[in-house]
Each structure stands twice: as structure tokens, then as C-alpha cells.
Design a protein that fits this description.
Chains A, B, C, D, E, F, G, H, I, J: GO terms for molecular function: cyanate hydratase activity; DNA binding. The structure is a homodecamer. Chain A is of the alpha+beta class. The first copy, chain A, has helices spanning 3-17, 21-28, 32-39, 47-56, 61-68, 83-107, and strands spanning 110-124, 131-142. Chain A has a two-stranded antiparallel ribbon with strand order 1-2. The first copy, chain A, starts with a helix and ends with a strand. The interface between A and B is large, with 62 and 62 residues.
Amino acid sequence: MKKEEMKEAILKAKYDKGLKWDSLAEAAGLSPEFTCSACLGMNHLEKKSADAVATLLDLGEDVSIALQKYPLKTWSQVVPTDPVIYRWYEIVGVYGETIKEIISDKFGDGIMSAIDFSMNIEKQEDPNGDRVVVTLNGKFLPYKSW
Amino acid sequence: MKKEEMKEAILKAKYDKGLKWDSLAEAAGLSPEFTCSACLGMNHLEKKSADAVATLLDLGEDVSIALQKYPLKTWSQVVPTDPVIYRWYEIVGVYGETIKEIISDKFGDGIMSAIDFSMNIEKQEDPNGDRVVVTLNGKFLPYKSW
Amino acid sequence: MKKEEMKEAILKAKYDKGLKWDSLAEAAGLSPEFTCSACLGMNHLEKKSADAVATLLDLGEDVSIALQKYPLKTWSQVVPTDPVIYRWYEIVGVYGETIKEIISDKFGDGIMSAIDFSMNIEKQEDPNGDRVVVTLNGKFLPYKSW
Amino acid sequence: MKKEEMKEAILKAKYDKGLKWDSLAEAAGLSPEFTCSACLGMNHLEKKSADAVATLLDLGEDVSIALQKYPLKTWSQVVPTDPVIYRWYEIVGVYGETIKEIISDKFGDGIMSAIDFSMNIEKQEDPNGDRVVVTLNGKFLPYKSW
Amino acid sequence: MKKEEMKEAILKAKYDKGLKWDSLAEAAGLSPEFTCSACLGMNHLEKKSADAVATLLDLGEDVSIALQKYPLKTWSQVVPTDPVIYRWYEIVGVYGETIKEIISDKFGDGIMSAIDFSMNIEKQEDPNGDRVVVTLNGKFLPYKSW
Amino acid sequence: MKKEEMKEAILKAKYDKGLKWDSLAEAAGLSPEFTCSACLGMNHLEKKSADAVATLLDLGEDVSIALQKYPLKTWSQVVPTDPVIYRWYEIVGVYGETIKEIISDKFGDGIMSAIDFSMNIEKQEDPNGDRVVVTLNGKFLPYKSW
Amino acid sequence: MKKEEMKEAILKAKYDKGLKWDSLAEAAGLSPEFTCSACLGMNHLEKKSADAVATLLDLGEDVSIALQKYPLKTWSQVVPTDPVIYRWYEIVGVYGETIKEIISDKFGDGIMSAIDFSMNIEKQEDPNGDRVVVTLNGKFLPYKSW
Amino acid sequence: MKKEEMKEAILKAKYDKGLKWDSLAEAAGLSPEFTCSACLGMNHLEKKSADAVATLLDLGEDVSIALQKYPLKTWSQVVPTDPVIYRWYEIVGVYGETIKEIISDKFGDGIMSAIDFSMNIEKQEDPNGDRVVVTLNGKFLPYKSW
Amino acid sequence: MKKEEMKEAILKAKYDKGLKWDSLAEAAGLSPEFTCSACLGMNHLEKKSADAVATLLDLGEDVSIALQKYPLKTWSQVVPTDPVIYRWYEIVGVYGETIKEIISDKFGDGIMSAIDFSMNIEKQEDPNGDRVVVTLNGKFLPYKSW
Amino acid sequence: MKKEEMKEAILKAKYDKGLKWDSLAEAAGLSPEFTCSACLGMNHLEKKSADAVATLLDLGEDVSIALQKYPLKTWSQVVPTDPVIYRWYEIVGVYGETIKEIISDKFGDGIMSAIDFSMNIEKQEDPNGDRVVVTLNGKFLPYKSW
């Protein structure tokens, strides 16, 4: 079973059962963000977590195996079009250099890792309209000379 | 004075004076992230903040005026190449659909605004290597039917 | 059933029955523009509206369910080629900066939302050739400093 | 004087004098939207209007002549990046096919002209946040067989 | 039946019967150029013409219906590669500004319509090698101020 | 003098003198279309024609020499944006395969040359709106086997 | 049978029979280069040649018919990636202007035809490593004024 | 002196003196094709050849030095537009796979080098129109396993 | 069997049997890197190696034959997205000119071959985190004049 | 002084003095590869190294300061064209997935860092033609779940 088929099977089962990512994450023993990214084919799960997710969704072993495989991370839209995702692309365009400047100021020359990395998404209730609060946490990797 | 010239003048003066964005932000009465983005030409400042930044840097009124103008936000690289900025593009590619899924679960169909938005970048000290912690806070905007 | 299959099924049934978007909209209790966009897979409908549309078209529950799912909004042509749609792309190219200038003048620095948004298309009869009158209504979102 | 230089000169003079597009339009005897588009180099003005705009801004005859020349309408960003303009690109992507469908329903096979065309932008005050209301009016051009 | 399938069916039947576009055009009561473009899926035919074409080719009603539907005009190659079509792209690149200049001289500021438009292709016999003579006839649409 | 500077000088002189391409063509002893294309830098003129054009415009020998040089034909917009030129790009997209089909029918497998080629643009007066009539004449070049 | 299927069938049969392009060319009565290009779908063969190729490969009449059809020449990679083909793209990039200059010197302003054209590929044995010798022969087409 | 300036200086001097590439090549003691490519900035010359070329053109030592520097070979048009150069791009598109097939047949798996490479362009007189004959000679490089 | 199917079959069998590339390489009598690249469809194997790989994986002769065919090397992402592969693209962007400079210094004007080439990937254990050590070995090919 | 100007100044001085990167590296106390990359504007040097490089080249303090600034790493060619650099792009295309597979086998799921990274380029003398041996050494970064 390919990752793409796995993703479709999981999304369909999740919808049919009326589950949220929180439930799948609880089964996997991981955060909802990471669990979701693995179910979408962008990360892999260890066997125990993969089995738990597949079981919760009444899906077979082939789904669990597909979840355990290391993914080839690809996307086809150089500029994403979905408005949710585009807004993030826009943030990178508008604030990318700002991020680089602030990191340079605080850490020196280097990058924020997208591999040694975690992400958390929360709902912040607000009478003027609820807010999405996303926290990204990535290891600072300094450029090294040699 | 064009925004591009303003940006160069500010970066040069900041470097020559050995200042950090924190100092400019304090002068502007705003966060370092927003102040920096305005100095890079991606946001505008109100007159009082603009004057304070220009004064701190010993730059003229033309810099202050340029800071007050509404910017046309453009970038030329469809896929950014600087490693700091690319990693964020990669995060959007790898985790974009995850972000959409989690927001859908928690809020329903809608987006996280990139306009009614703030960003905070902190250094988290860690014996295994310091970490960059970025918090993005954007208003949830539900799709409306009509 | 995927959105793409749903779209094909709806367009075929609409054609075979000789219905117009007005009729589908009436069934859905929404405007023709929004109803059409949902049937094309670019918005979702609430259950009641989705059921009404499916029923009117003698289509099954799978169509109604597909209409209720939150869409991933994607398009594959960076520059659209169909002449109807290209003309709008051209309007954005020719008048985009004008729109920004007039909004800046009237509202200050900010954008017109494409999310908190509605659109109405009318036929204006004219002896020199009928005219298409489109009204777009989007919430003004001011840039905020922080 | 090239259109690009004309545009810069006009924007600078407008800013320095604290004028709005309404004032320039009144001088030109045209709408603010059309006047603005001509000042940005995307349309031309007749001599009388061009002279009036140049006079109001205390700019020379070369600006008036540049305003009268027929423009070559070009833009360099295939996908616009400024958030105001991108939102319109997004509307074309999300609602382009909807526009085509509704026009087909109401008029038959044909397009809405972007040449025999006018645009009006208004501010609609609203306690929940003011709204931008844009009305586009384009002649319907039917496809003809031969 | 989709336009793409209709196109394949028509091209196959035309080849098997050894017919030329002239014959299909005669059946349709239209020019060969327009008839051909409709059979390739880039225009629609009225019922009478569509039925006549389908009958001549011994194809079913589904082909006739497909011919009557309004097409979504799309092409996938931004720069066409087939040498026949590329030469036209090249003509647009080499002579596009010339066309604009001559039209401006003769008509004023405006465009030649690609909608209110016809095209005729003739063979001109020539002892030095026959020549292709193509006549394009499009309505002049003046830019209007408002 | 580069072709680009030559083009600007000619366009300015032509505008200042209020001349039309017809007059330049008469001086050159060529058609307005070819003369214009050479003045825009997309063809070269023989010395006699080049001198005549430069003389008519009161421009120096450097303009004549620039007109005589063989051009490197380049354009920077893969998809042209000016509406006059785009409509031709659209015609190539919509009718390119039609042109190939009709040529195949009438001539066999081969192309219409864009080199051994001429173009004529006329104004056709019409009470319903004047029309632009463009005639393209290119040698048929058959594919050869070997 | 589509050209793409024809190509696959021919390549498979050629491989299974252990034939070289020389043999197919001998059957076709043409050069290996042209015969190969037709079998890959980039040229057409006359009936006699097409039948001979199909017979040699024990393939049916549908292959012969597919070989006889005029191809639509398309390729999907704007920059080819296969190293053999890329090296030619590189030659065009590195030596394209050189080719233009030398042709201009020897022939005047004009092009080398890619239609009235032949190509021959030979193996030149060399103790320092064999060499590929390719001869391209294209008719010179002078630009004409009119 | 940059390569680009060197190229302009050489082309201007060559034009003013009415020289052909043959003469420059004779001075350099190399072929016209290689000499031309070096003068266009796509190869370098040894000191002796560079001095000879500069002397013949009455250009200074800076031109000779620029000719001797190793070039960074770049071109900006992914798809070339000049008709001479485009025809070669088209040959690569149409015949690229043919070249690969014939080389595979005659040599086995490998490429024709674009580095250990020479090119010769000749004029073949022909009563039906002169022909350009180009011979490319590149070392065969076999893929190696390891 | 196409290369793409071969690749899928091999990857599946390798996963199911829990084998590593080292084992396949040992069977093939080649390095793991080359063997892997052939199994992914980017190189071909000689019959003996191909048979050995197929046998080890309990796959049929069609897999062996597919491994022996000369591949057309294509990839669809102009900028790769998978983080492992992107980092290499980034290295080429950041250090490409450095590589050219150092090679020029040490060898003169020429390139490092990607055909007469081998690659070795090793794991270097390190208490601060293991390291990937990749050695690329390519023949220097000097540019030649002619 | 901008990085681009610094690069030009350094390359010119290095050429005029006939120095190699080895000498600059010795002055900087770093490897030739890193020193070169910093001089090309793709890395920064510490003050001591920057001063030493500037002194060796008889360049001023502005060059040293420019060398010390953190660079914004950008490149403009999505696909590089210089043959030296393209061959590396090709290696990424041909062997990118192989690299990913071998790393997965030896380390598990993760990447090879391009930041915690070093590169060494050596000349390997060989009677069949000298070889370029490049060693890349990057830290393995495992994907982490959270």
C-alpha cells in the first residue's frame, strides 16, 4: 500500500467514525500534529503507534505498515493555493528576512532546524474572534567554518 | 527615498552602531519582530515610531517618511534559497496540510489570518543545543456562506 | 466520493435536467454564486443544503456527503487559460495596484478579505450589448502592529 | 519621460501634497479608479485630463505627455505577492469557474470584457468592521461561430 | 462524454473515413476552421450542426451532446512545442509589439478581439513553394475611460 | 548604439513629429508592418531604408547603423501581458491545433514558415464597430524524410 | 492506437528481437535516424515504410497506421534531464549565439531550418576513446522584408 | 573588464572593421567556431590567441585578459527565443531521444561529451537554396558501474 | 515491465525480506550505491548482476530484464522537495561556484564528470552525533580548443 | 560595501596577484573550500580571518567588514547552467533518491545536514586522466517524533 492510498484510507475512516486528530494522537501516544503529519504521509510512525492508529480506525495491517515506512516528502505546488496553506507561504515571504534577522541577533549566524523540530497548534478563545496560536520549536544550528 | 534605500540605510546604521533589533524596538515602542519587518520594508510605522527609529540611528527625516509609507509587499524568489528562510518554506510544504487539518478539527472550515497576526521569536537555552521558539498568533477567519 | 467526482456528477445531472444554478441555489437556500462554488468543489455546504441539492438532482447520499466536506482549494494553472477566467487574471494584473491604492486612500493600510467575502453576478440589459455586473464584498482587515 | 518615471513623480507629489485619488479624479473629470490606473501607467488620459492632473500636482508638461501616451501593460509577477493583490488572484483561482458557470447560465457562451469595462470601489461602513465593495461592470461578448 | 473523449472519437472517425475538415464543415453549415475548433473541443456547436457532424461520422448522440456543451478552454503547454504551433507563438513574440503599434496608429488605444473573431486559412499555390495564407478578423475594442 | 536605445529614440522622434508608421514605411520603401518591426528591433533594414528612416526622423547615423544590424530576437515575457498581445497568445492557444489540422488537410505534414513570411494589418470599417483584419502569409515547408 | 502506445510496442519488439535501428531503417528504406524518430512518434512514415517496419517487428496493422499519422510533436521537460539529451541542451546554451554569428557571417540574416533538415550520427573510432560525430544539415532560410 | 563588456567591445570592433570570424580565427590560430565562442564569453583563449585577437581589433590588453579568464557559462532564457537558436532547441526536443537511441545502438549506454567536443559550420551551396551543415564531434563517455 | 514498475517491485521485496542495499550489492558484485541507483531505475546492470538481484529478491526474469535496459534518466521536480535531497540541491546552490573555483585552481578550465563517476556513502560514528561522509570521484575533463 | 562588490574585488585582486585559494586559506587559517565560499559571499569569516585575507590581497577594511557580515544566501538560476555546477545538479537528480536510500539503511529516517557540514576537494592523479575527489561530511539529523 502506497502512502497516498494510506492517507485516503485514514481520512475516510476518520471521517466515517467522526474522530478528531486528538483521538488518533492519544492512540499513537504522540501529539496530534505529529500523528496527523504521519497519517498524511509526511512522517513515519513506530510500529506500536502505527498499529494503534490502524486498530482505532479498524484498518488493516497494510495501513500500519504503510505508516511505518520512511516517506519521500514531496509536494507538487511550488506556490500552494489552498488559502490556509497560502497564508503560511505569505508569512514566509513577508517575514522570512525578519526571522533571519532576529535569529542572527539572538544566536549568531545559523538556522532554525526543520528536522529537530516540533509544532503545536492551539485555539485561543477571544471575544473578538478566536485565534490560532502556533508554536514552532526548532534547534538552532550554527554555521561552522572548517 | 524608496523602501529599498531605506532598508539599506537602516541596516548599515544598525551595523555601524552595533545595535540589536531589541534597541530599535524599544525606541519604536513595538516588538522587535514588527519593528524589524518595518525596517526591512514589509510593514509601515506610525510617525512617532518612525521618528524614534530614525533618531536612534542618526538618520534623516527621509528615512522616517519612508518608514511611514504603506509598503507594496513583494519578493522575487518563488522558492526562497537562503537556508533560514527555505527551512520555513519546507515547513509549509511538509506541514501545511497538517496545519489545515488541525485547524479544521478545532475551529471548523476557515483560515488563520496572516494580517490580523503577530509573531514572537525567543531563544530557549538547552544543554543539547539552544532552540528557536517561534509563536505565531493569527485570528481565525471562518469561511462564510451567502 | 472525491470532490472531483462529485463535481462531475453534479454538472452532468444539472445538464441532463436542464437546470440552472438559480434552481440549485433555491434548493440550498443560498445564493447561486456560493452554491455553484460549492458544487464545483471550492466551498462546503451544511448538511441541509447539501441534501437538498443532491435530492433536486436525484443524486445519492455520497454526493451530499462530498458537498459537506471541507475542501482543499487547489487549481493547477498558475495563469488561467479559459478566456472568461483569464480576463479576471488580466484585471488583477492591470488594476491590482489601483485597487491597493484606492483601498489605502479610503481605509488605511490593510486588505480586502477573500474569506469574509461574498460575490454577486447580475445581468444588466443594455441596447449596446448586455453587461455583466459583478459585486464583490469583502471585509476590510487592517494591518496591525504589535 | 517613461511611464515608470511618471508614476514615481505622481506618487511622490500626491504624497507630499497630502492629496487623495478623489482630488486627482475630480481634476481629471473621471472616476478615481480610472484616474489612478492611468497615473500608475496602466491607462492613458486625454490631454485635458492629463494637463489637469499635472497642474494639480505642480508637475511639468512631460508628466502630462507621459499620461497621454498609450501604455504597454506589463507586470512582472506571474503570481502577485502583495497581500491586497494576491487576495484578488486567489478569488480568481477559487471563484473563476463559478464566474464562468453563472455567466454561461445567464448569457450563454461568452466572456465578460476586461476592455469595455469599469470598476468602482466603495467603503461600506459596518459595526463589525468596514467592508470593501467593488463593482465590476464589463460588456458581455458572445462567442460567434463563422 | 467528456470533450477530450469526443475529440478522440471524432479524429479517429474522420481518419477512418478519409474525410477532410471541409466535409465536416459542409455538414455543419459553418467554416472548416470553426468546425474543426469545435471538434477539437475549443468551441461549441448548435444542436443542428452537432447532429450533422455526428451523423456524418456515424457517431452517437453522446458526441453530438458533447459538441454542444460550452467548453472550458485550457491548454497545458505554456510555450507550445509542436513546430506548427510554435511558429505562431514565435510570430506573437516577434511581431506582437508591431501589431500593437499598427493598431494604435490606425484605431487609437484598444485591442483586437479574440472573441468576436474569425479565421480563414487558404492555400496559395506558388511555383516557389505553396504558401499558407491566414486571415484573422477581430473586432476593434477601444479602451474606455470612466 | 544598442537596438533598445535605437527603439526608444525612434519611438520618441515619431511621437514628437506626430508621424505614423505609414510615413516611415513610405520612406523605407517597405510595408508599415515590416518597417515598424525593424524600428522595434525585431528585423534589420538595408542601408538605404535605414538611412531614409533616420533622415525622416532627424536622427543620426548611429540610428541608421543600429537599424542595419542583424537583431538577436528576444522577449522576456513567456506569457505576454499586454492585452493586445495576449489576445494573440490566446488565439495560438485556442486555435493552434486547428491551424495544424487545416494545414495538414490542405498541404500534408509540414509547417507554415515564420521566416519566409509577411503580415498585413488593415482597418475594416463596420457600422457595428470597426474590425482589425490581419493577413499572415507564410511559405509551407513540408517535413522531409531522409 | 496512439503514438505513445505505438512507441512502446515498437521498442519492446525491437528489444525482444534484438534488432538495431539499422535493420528497421533498411526495412523502411530510410536512414536509421529518421526511422527511429518516426518510431518514437516524432515523424510519420509513408505506408510502404510503415508496413515494412511493422512486418519486420511482427506487429499488426494498427502499428503501421499509427506510424503513418502526422504527429503532434510535444515534449514535457522544458529542460531535459537525461544526460545524453541535456548535453545537447547545454550545447544550444553554450554555442547557440556562436551558431547564429557564424551563420550571419556566411549567409546573412536568416536561420537554419529544423524542418527541411536531416541528421546523421556516426561512430568514429579513436584510440583515445571513440567519438560520436553528428552531422546536421538544414536549409538556410533568409529573413525577407516586404 | 567583465566578459560581457569584452563581448560588446569585440562585436563593435568587428563590425566597425568589417571583419568576419574567419579573420579573427586566423589570428587566433583556431577555428572560427571556437574563436567566436570565446569572444562571446563562452570559452577562454590562451594568452597568445587572446593577444592576437585583441591586436587585430585594435583593442587593449584588458580585452586580452578578459579573453583569457575562465568563463562562468550562463544564459538567462530557459527556452531561447531567437529563431536561429530556438530551432536548435526544437531539434533537441524533437530528436533528443533519437540521438540517445542511435548512440545506445552503436556505442552502448553512455553519452556524447559536450566538453571534449568540437563543432564545425559550413555553407553547402545548393541551387534549391544553400544549406547549413553543422558537424558536432564529441567523445563517447560510457557509464561505468562501480 | 517498465523501470517504474521494476522499482516498486524491488522496493517492496526488499522491505518484505528485511534486506539492506549491502546485501543486494553483494549479490550484484557491485557497490551498494551503484546497485541501489540501478534498482531505482537510474542505471542499468549487466545480465549477471541483474539476475543475481532478481534471484535474491525472488522476483522474476522480467525484473532482471528491466534492470538490464538502458534507462532514460528523468526527474520531475526541478527543485527537489524531500529534505534529504533538497539539502544536496542547497549544497549545489551554496557551494557550486566554490567547487568551480577550486577545480579551476587545481586543474585549469574544465569540469568534473558526472558520467565517469563513482560515489561512496559511509557512516562516521561520532559522540556528538554520527556523520554522513560522502565521497564523489569524477574524472576531470578539460575544455579543449579546436 | 555589498557582498557582490566584495566578491568582485577579491576575485580581481586574486587574479592580478596570481594567487590561489590555498594561499588565501592559509592566511585565513581555514580550508580553501570554506575560505573560497566566504570570498564568494556564501559564508562569513571571523574578524581575524577576514583581516588576514584583505591584507594578503591589499584590499581595504571595507572588504574585511563585508567578509564578516552574515550573508543572505541567494542564487538566481533555479537550474544552474555552468557545466561544472550543472553536473552537480545532475548528480542530485540522478543519485538523490539513492543517497536517501543508503542513508535510511545505515542511519534510519533523517537527513545529512548542509549546515553542520564540511567539504574537501582533492586532485587524484591518474594516468587515464586526473580525477576530482570531493568529500562531503555532514551531521546526520534524525527526524524526531513529538
